[in-house]
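The step that takes the researchers longest sounds almost clerical: writing a folded protein down as plain text. Below is the pair of lines this work produces for a single protein:

——
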Amino acid sequence: MGLLQGTIVVWARVPSFIATLAGLLAWQGVQLILLDSTGELLIRNPLVRSLASGYLTSAQGIAVAMAVLLSVAVVIWRRRTSRRRLGLEIAPVQNAIAQFAIWGAALVVGVAACNSYFGVPYVVLVLGAVVAVLSWFTERTVTGGHIYAIGGNAEAARRAGIPVGAVRIGVFSLIGMLAGLGGMFSASRQFAVSIGTGGGTLLLDAIAAAVIGGTSLFGGRGRIYHAILGALVIGSVANGLDLLGAPSSTKNIATGVILVIAVGIDALSRGRP
């Protein structure tokens, strides 16, 4: 789906917003065809059913935390070694120790909290892996640099020799894969797929999470983990209003206000009128 929509954007020169909006309507129609008259499809595959409701054992959670901490140590060491080899300034070793200690404390607290419940959820494990891989891809690879360059100024990127069309199609394809992964977890949570799956404010919440996290609607700026922070903000606001007994209308208004403020700050920081 992502490959098809990316090709339409690049070759037919259809604006991305229009292509994805049209795709949303078209794929919802395909969903209705697949669900037929029943309007619901039960998920019976045990693997899919366990994605959103499965947990690691306490020992597995501790092992994963140790593996992540070891990976952090390797990354910190490699960065310092690379900067030393290139003759660049290296931060004091105390900074590296503090960074490692913060990661260690966060992992200990997180795993201990999860193990006091049912254990570390599979969904957290998958989310962490996706964030780590995409962060490396966007920040440490040539293609990732091309993505930021195209977002900042597509024409300048084209003149610099970047294959703008190919990169855009690749990004749309990657987004399609991530949407499919998200759909699997959505189906796993409900043990079914219905005509209401993916509806409501889900799409707007996804956009708001990225923007509130610092991803610019004008392109060229943002980080993968920032979207996670934005989602936590939205979730925290919604949870807090639920605890106060506020209606759904208030949650939507609060999310909308926060989104406008985030976009306004981004526009002001770029000096846009």
About this structure: The mean pLDDT is 85.
